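Ticket #4471: structure output looks truncated?

Reporter: J.K.
Steps to reproduce: submitted the chain below (189 residues) through the standard prediction queue, then opened the result file.
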Amino acid sequence: MNQEEQERRGFFRIDDDVALSYRLVPASVVEQDAVTLRIGEAGSLANELERMREVSRIHFRRVEKEAPEVARYLAHIDSKIDLLAQHIMMGADELFVKSTQAVNISGSGLAFTVNEPLNSDDFVEVRFALQPSLTSIKTYAKVVSCQPQTKAYRAAVEFVCLNDEDRDLLIRHVVKKQMNDIREHNAPS
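Returned output as attached by the reporter:
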């Protein structure tokens, strides 16, 4: 296994459900937009809320220990803000009205079902929204493989322009989902 393959496998992978859209793009578009995507555009409302939640998590835990009632109230307010944000985003972006599909995802790439075969080394623009936070990520990816399945194909893509902030959000999502899956698996029946 070469170093690139080792790095690609260096991220945890999970099976998850995400709202997903993709489209083929020429390599010239990827090269043209690469710098902009790596630097990052202004994040979506959900992404900014998730970043703020991460920053305030330490303070929230302290409040939770010292004043549990206040912490419950703050959690309730946070839930209201999330609900409003979801409502706003669902009305503003067609990605959020798509039904979710099963994917295998990591900080380095994504595997998902497609109706038409994709060629290895093709480039795609990928947009997806993580559940339940609705954190949305737009990036370019290179098709690594596309294997036939019953009535469809399983495409595996490697992110080529994922900016650091979005990669961090994605990795946190993967770890959080993995922890929740482990808790559910270990919970008494």
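Triage note (M.O.): checked the attachment and the full token line is present. The chain has one domain: 11-186.
Status: closed, working as intended.
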